[in-house]
Amino acid sequence: MKFLPSILMYFFQSGKAKTNVKALLKFIVILMFLITFYTIIFHYIKAYEGEQHSYITGFYWTIVTMTTLGYGDIIFTSDLGRAFSTVVLLSGVVFLLVMLPFTFIQFFYAPWLEAQNKARTPRELSSSTSGHVILSNMDPLVSTLIEKLKQYEYPYVIITPDQQMVLELYDRGYKIIFGDLDDMETFRKARADKAALAFFNNDDQTNTNATFTLRDFSKEVEIVASAEAQESVDILELAGSNQVYQFSRMLGRALARRVLGVSMHANVIGRFDDLLIAEAPAMRTPLDGKTIMQSKLRETTGVNVVGIWERGKFIAPLPDTKITPDTVLVLAGSEKQLEKYDEIYGIYNLSFAPVLILGGGRVGRAAAEALSENEVEYRIVEKNPRLVGDKEKYVVGSAADLYILKKAGIDKAPSVIITTNNDDLNIYLTIYCRKLKPEIQIITRATRERSISKLHHAGADLVMSYASMGANTIINHLKGDNVLMVSEGLDIFKEKVPKSLEGKTLAESEIRKKTGCSVIAIDSKGTTTINPVPDTLLEPEDELIIIGSTEAESKFICSFAKKD
Prior knowledge:
Elements: H1 4-13, H2 15-48, H3 55-66, H4 79-120, E1 133-135, H5 140-151, E2 156-160, H6 163-171, E3 176-178, H7 184-189, E4 197-200, H8 204-217, E5 223-226, H9 231-239, E6 243-245, H10 247-257, E7 267-272, E8 275-281, H11 292-295, H12 297-301, E9 304-310, E10 313-315, E11 327-333, H13 335-345, E12 355-358, H14 362-373, E13 378-382, E14 394-396, H15 402-408, E15 415-418, H16 423-436, E16 441-446, H17 451-458, E17 462-465, H18 466-479, E18 483-487, E19 490-496, H19 506-509, H20 511-515, E20 518-524, E21 527-530, E22 543-549, H21 550-559
Parallel strand pairs: 1-2, 1-4, 2-3, 4-5, 5-6, 12-13, 12-15, 13-14, 15-16, 16-17
Antiparallel strand pairs: 7-8, 8-11, 9-10, 9-11, 18-19, 19-22, 20-21, 20-22
Helix pairs in contact: 1-2, 1-4, 2-3, 2-4, 3-4, 5-18, 8-9, 10-14, 16-17
């Protein structure tokens, strides 16, 4: 009922609504005239047949006949009367059963629903809103980002010009408003001048227009945009974006960094100040069959094993955790420490066979670019001839074709990177490649979050989600590069020492026991201590560099960060 005044105002003020109501009233007038006319004719024909009936009876018979109820209590005995009954019946079917519902729905009920929807469509944020994040497109990336924003307690609002989507998302509990991205008034209502960040994740042209409009509205607001084409990066920056990300290119390069066994170096997958995070396979190295304690990696190289992957499953290592041929070690250390590791273990997995890339789109080409920079041979399998570049590096055909895969070199390839944006196809190709070569490393992308576990179950060693990578990138930007996604579901993040832990040693904090996270470095007064010992004292101004799963990160924030 609270929307009733707005709805009535719509009918009184909207020109289209006024026209529709007038048309409906005209139809009702014509219908009433017809009923009155039939009532009079009924009276005269019944008098012709020698019967006398009141006009009320005539009105009753007309309504009963036109609505096809046909009680049969009043009938005509003459041919004239029966012909008249037929005309009344047919006109009733046309006017009451066909035209009236159609006219009512089109000219009154549909506009009424439209007015009701417009009245309940949120269009403006409270004037007190500030420090929020403005989003412009509801897709898997933004959906994942919203969950991250909730985790870090950042308010947000989605702007969309699609009224139906606004109502659907509003009913599902999302903070959303209706508005056009090229309208400065929309950003005024979104309190964009008080926002912490605006993120535009549409097509390049829409992003450019939205960025340009918002920058006209506010010179201070931080604007981040995504770009599909390389040439759009400069244009978006000229339009006013503070930062432009090519997520497809970033994902391709991230996938390529996960390729193992193609060089003599530990595979560095991330950097956090002076701290490097690397992955190294244990297969065919002296580490195979030993426990973490027996490996003595920390004593001989200085690196710390902060995690292990077992067929796509991340495990927090314990001293007695056994290293198997399927184990991929997640190492943390300085550049010199990783070089020491390379000297001892890097030579065991050397391979010169080309890495296979299935899919020659943006992600596939970016992966190839990253491999090329590291002087790693590769072959791209692409069935669309228009996407084929260097013919020596491409094999044209379907990746589901055994002949094509063998031609590309799957029999000798150490790794295969599956890059298509179709999760169903990626699952299909993962199962196929695992069946063809059980020992090959399979790295694949996921578009939908629900596909990640399926891809691991299908045989993928590592899965990277486009949505998670993009969401983490925006969170990194928002928090000042305080979060680094190592892989799907595994993050490195930086947090100040919680007040409840000040003055305690690392062992006394029980961070790992309570949350499942591991402290891999401590930044104290500009100096980073990598792999700190358990008796390290936690000072008030120190920053902890922590690795953990998404769930473990949430536990840390709830257990310590939110209590401060």
